[in-house]
Specification:
With 498 residues, the protein is α+β, with helices and mostly antiparallel strands. It is 25% helix and 21% strand.
């Protein structure tokens, strides 16, 4: 179909103003309220509470996003899962006829008992003569006030995009203006509503990821509180996250169940490890994040927040580990790892949180950033796939301007497209995200080898042009990371040269 398509491949051998959405966080799970068919966008924990409700006893997202925002995350998208019998809270207004009949129905904007617990509506006289006003209150505070409504249809329109309630015109047979809703002497509570959470399965939660289409951009994705090995229809939570990440240019954060031992998480990594794992990370262990004795939490939200900060401060190739992965609100870990155990898990492609002692004090840090890819030469760390995901999305956006432009024989389109791609790559190169080739024979970097762009006739052959297609070849070499530092100290004799 027409448009811009960008794909990536791996080629062996030698050969910041960055999109803020690369640090966004896609999560699925159960919440008190929020859309059950689409997704909610939140940019702070306060906005999460406004749109999805507060902390619950049945979901993990409040705590997960609390840590995401605490570590520098700035944008999260939430897909809420509810059961098949979910329903909305409601109430009804009668009209002003001598024998009143129903004229308006007010339904909560989305399913759950939250409306009956928190929300009221009240019909009052409007500010203008002959009009009415509908007021919605949440925990007694007015959150919606629609004034100077004349007809029931006006109320329907006024609440069409409300995050709290929808209004339905019940088509009262009473002639206007007596078909207006009767004035309420006091706020009227909503009744009913359920999220049917007892019927929610892991398969349903995983299916909610389908509400995050590719065109929402790159980012991190997770299903907090659901272990990677939890079975769902057709596979596991971990595989569903990996599949979503690969299909939508995102990084998947996976975690084991609470109480998983070191040997068990190694075995889990073995089952997740694969050619499709370059965009996935397995995090361990669960952490104590609210002071000594507080409940343990799954680490995905912390990772996503650290990742978002690295993308903002460094770029999409940034690695949020080591000092950049320090978490000041962690007070303990479910499993305190020794260095030997951490090294063992790193070799098993498990990225761990560890207590690190530096300059006489202790801190907790993410101390690994391994991908779950079997192609360890090209994708040893998750940051390589993050960079490629960013590039795919960015170049798709950059080249959109050329869709349906003429492929001229003088090569103007080829030059312009190459220049636009080169501008993007050069910015990443200058910021340190791409590296020139280090010639092992001379131990020197070869200038101009960090990337290559080709839009010429060797790529755009007559066959390509005959399909009304324009191609560009882009080769990139991402920079290495000092994941391990080795210092070699040699003691020499007093009379010998150092």
């Amino acid at each position: 179909m027409p448009g811009v398509t960008v794909d990536t491949s791996t080629r062996p051998g030698p050969g910041s103003s960055f999109a803020p959405d690369s640090g966004q966080y896609f999560v699925a799970g159960m919440t008190e309220r929020g859309s059950a068919t689409g997704y909610e966008v939140v940019t702070s924990l306060g906005e999460y509470v406004d749109k999805c409700g507060g902390e619950t006893t049945f979901g993990f997202l409040y705590g997960d996003l609390k840590r995401f925002f605490a570590k520098g995350g700035s944008r999260a998208l939430i897909a809420r899962a509810v059961g098949p019998a979910a329903s909305v809270g409601t109430n009804t207004s009668v009209d002003r006829a001598g024998a009143p009949v129903a004229t308006l129905r007010y339904d909560a904007a989305n399913p759950g008992a939250w409306a009956a617990t928190h929300m009221t509506r009240q019909v009052l006289a409007g500010s203008n003569t002959g009009t009415f006003k509908v007021v919605i209150a949440y925990d007694g505070a007015i959150v919606e006030s629609k004034d100077n409504l004349v007809t029931p249809a006006d109320a329907v329109t006024a609440f069409a995009t409300s995050p709290y309630a929808r209004v339905t015109n019940l088509s009262s047979v009473t002639a206007a203006p007596a078909n207006q809703p009767a004035i309420d002497g006091a706020p009227v509570a909503f009744t009913g509503g359920a999220d049917d959470r007892a019927s929610v399965t892991a398969t349903m939660v995983a299916a909610a990821l389908g509400r995050f289409p590719k065109d929402l951009g790159p980012g991190a994705v997770a299903i907090p509180g659901y272990a990677a090995d939890v079975a769902i229809t057709g596979g596991t939570i971990g595989q569903a996250l990996k599949d979503h990440a690969n299909a939508n240019r995102r990084d998947a954060g996976l975690a084991p169940a609470k109480g998983t031992s070191i040997s068990a998480v190694q075995a889990l990594s073995d089952t997740l490890d694969g050619a499709d794992g370059s965009g996935s990370i397995l995090l361990y262990p669960w952490v104590e994040a609210n002071g000594p004795g507080s409940p343990l939490v799954s680490p995905e939200g912390i990772w996503a927040g650290l990742r978002a900060t690295a993308h903002r401060l460094v770029g999409p190739w940034g690695v949020p580990a080591g000092e950049a992965g320090e978490v000041d609100f962690i007070s303990g870990l479910e499993v305190e790892l020794t260095r030997a155990q951490a090294d063992q898990l790193d070799a098993a492609k498990v990225s761990v949180f560890r207590k690190i002692r530096q300059n006489g004090s202790n801190s907790y840090r993410l101390y690994g950033y391994r991908s779950l890819s079997t192609d360890v030469d090209n994708y040893p760390l998750l940051k390589t796939r993050s960079l490629l995901n960013y590039l795919e999305a960015a170049l798709e956006n950059d080249l959109e301007t050329y869709v349906f432009q003429t492929i001229d024989s003088r090569g103007f389109l080829a030059v312009e497209a190459a220049a636009r791609i080169t501008t993007r790559l050069e910015a990443i190169y200058r910021a340190g995200g791409l590296s020139d080739y280090l010639d092992p024979a001379t131990s020197t970097y070869v200038p101009g080898t960090a990337y290559r762009v080709d839009t010429g006739p060797a790529v755009n052959t007559p066959d390509v042009r005959g399909r009304n297609e324009f191609d560009a070849y882009v080769g990139v070499r991402d920079s290495a990371v000092a994941a391990e530092l080795k210092v070699h100290i040699a003691k020499v004799a007093l009379a010998a040269a150092v």
